[in-house]
Design goal:
Layout (H helix, E strand, L loop, with lengths): L1 H12 L3 H9 L8 H28 L8 E3 L9 H9 L3 E3 L14 H10 L1 H8 L6
Parallel strand pairs: 1-2
């Protein structure tokens, strides 16, 4: 959903990718403008519909009728209220994944970079943890 939101902000407001990303999470110094909130809500409505449809399909097509949690990742986890809206929609606990939670890393890494990695670096962290085999 994050990329879709960014692209829609770019399209509707005529800004570049980085400007759209900054607007999406309020990094423009003044919070998230109302017009951006409206764009985010438009995209999330479609996203939430698809998530709910997928979950309903999963529950009806398995013997597993319990859905007891959801973990979200990515830069869009920085969107204020996203986790709460998902929690309300799905009726279950929502957790934001922190890939650094069980890792050790240098104390010289800035808080800003750590936050960036925590929210946007999940795939990179996962790939870095893979065992490389030479066959």
């Amino acid at each position: 959903a994050g990329l879709s939101i960014t692209e829609e902000i770019q399209r509707q407001l005529g800004v570049n990718h980085q400007e759209a990303e900054d607007l999406k999470v309020g990094n423009n110094g003044g919070g998230i403008p109302e017009e951006v909130v409206e764009i985010i809500n438009q995209v999330l409505d479609g996203f939430f519909t698809e998530v709910k449809r997928s979950l309903d399909f999963y529950i009806t097509s398995t013997t597993d009728d319990i859905f007891d949690g959801c973990i979200i990742t990515g830069g869009s986890t920085l969107i204020d209220g996203l986790d709460g809206a998902l929690q309300e929609l799905l009726g279950t606990e929502i957790e934001v994944l922190n890939p650094l939670q069980f890792m050790t890393y240098s104390n010289s890494i800035s808080d800003e970079l750590l936050s960036f990695i925590q929210h946007r670096g999940v795939v990179a962290c996962g790939l870095a943890m893979r065992k490389v085999s030479s066959k």
